[in-house]
């Protein structure tokens, strides 16, 4: 029943083979989805080359640069979707950023510019990409974003990203409310800690992972593939009655009080 054949899926946020977005793209592809990939471009074209090589086995029919701080790139990404696919069914928002200095130490010393940057890239981008996707989701659709427990409870060092994730989770609910009449579902996956490029910027990430391995009901953290499976489920008809939700894929850690 988990069949995504004929569905067009844009996956954002693949940086390397540890990226959660890479785990999601692979599972969507396995379920039969037609994959499009957007990447964060850099001056030397290194990211483009690296991501293109990585995603080649998935035969992406769309491969576009999209820095979410760049209006023109967002516009051209969705123009390319319109031109190549005519409709979009799945949007995977799997990106975030905060300055490293804002991911450790005293939260009260978060800089104004660091706050604005983290919230713009990590939170506002979901709103903007969803707005751009809306007119293309003519046959309904599914939008999935990635959040973390630090947006709901205090996790040492997560700091400004906790505020970004709290805003992201509330944005999921407002977007779900708006887009529901068009049969577009919007959900978030709250993943347990996984070692990636982004998570390595969070102070003490290894301690966080070890703590989860000791305390979580499953006595381990999760893999990109497990998050990918949950995303494929949320994008499929199996989840047709689910919207506006935060689904914890964290080996059960979130239920624990101590
Ligand atoms: N790794 C974890 O432990 C964990 C846990 C829960 C949630 N998450 C969330 O999962 C998502 C993916 O992160 P990840 O851990 O796979 O790390 P990652 O470093 O592999 O992915 C982060 C992505 O964000 C992209 N990005 C940053 N700035 C951007 C911009 N301006 N425009 C477009 N893209 C931009 C990067 O290019 C990268 O591909 C993030 O939202 C993160 O907060 C991660």
From TrEMBL:
Question: What positions belong to coiled-coil segments?
Answer: none
Tell me the domain of life. Bacteria
Establish whether keyword Amino-acid biosynthesis is in the entry.
Answer: no
Q: Which Pfam families match?
A: adh_short_C2
Going by the UniProt record, its keywords in alphabetical order are:
Fatty acid biosynthesis, Fatty acid metabolism, Lipid biosynthesis, Lipid metabolism, NAD, Oxidoreductase
The protein's enzyme class = oxidoreductase
GO molecular function of the protein, one example?
A: enoyl-[acyl-carrier-protein] reductase (NADH) activity
* Reaction catalysed by this enzyme: a 2,3-saturated acyl-[ACP] + NAD(+) = a (2E)-enoyl-[ACP] + NADH + H(+)
The record, for Gene3D superfamilies, names: Enoyl acyl carrier protein reductase, NAD(P)-binding Rossmann-like Domain
Supply the EC number(s).
1.3.1.9
Please indicate if the UniProt record lists Oxidoreductase as a keyword. yes
Q: In which pathway does it act?
A: Lipid metabolism
NCBIfam families assigned to the protein according to its UniProt record, in alphabetical order: PRK07370.1
By sequence similarity, the record places it as follows:
Belongs to the short-chain dehydrogenases/reductases (SDR) family. FabI subfamily.
In Swiss-Prot or TrEMBL terms, this protein is called Enoyl-[acyl-carrier-protein] reductase [NADH]
């Amino acid at each position: 029943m988990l069949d995504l054949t004929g569905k067009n899926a844009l996956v954002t946020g693949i940086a390397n083979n540890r990226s959660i977005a890479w785990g999601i793209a692979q599972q969507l592809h396995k379920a039969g989805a037609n994959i499009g990939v957007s990447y964060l471009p850099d001056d030397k074209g290194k990211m483009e080359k690296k991501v293109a090589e990585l995603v080649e086995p998935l035969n992406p029919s769309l491969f576009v640069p999209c820095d979410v701080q760049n209006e023109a790139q967002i516009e051209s990404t969705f123009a390319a979707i319109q031109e190549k696919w005519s409709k979009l069914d799945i949007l995977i928002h799997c990106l975030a950023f905060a300055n490293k200095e804002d991911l450790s130490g005293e939260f009260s010393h978060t800089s104004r510019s660091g706050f604005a940057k983290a919230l713009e890239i990590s939170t506002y981008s979901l709103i903007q990409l969803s707005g751009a996707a809306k007119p293309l989701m003519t046959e309904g659709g599914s939008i999935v974003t990635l959040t973390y427990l630090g947006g709901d409870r205090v996790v040492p060092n997560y700091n400004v990203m906790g505020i970004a994730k709290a805003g992201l989770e509330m944005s999921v609910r407002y977007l779900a409310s708006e887009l529901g009449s068009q049969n577009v579902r919007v959900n978030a996956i709250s993943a347990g800690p996984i070692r990636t490029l982004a998570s390595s910027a969070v102070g003490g990430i290894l301690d966080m992972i070890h703590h989860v391995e000791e305390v979580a009901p499953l006595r381990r953290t999760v893999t990109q593939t497990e998050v990918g499976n949950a995303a494929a489920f949320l994008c499929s008809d199996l989840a047709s009655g689910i919207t506006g939700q935060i689904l914890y894929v964290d080996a059960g850690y979130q239920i624990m009080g101590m």
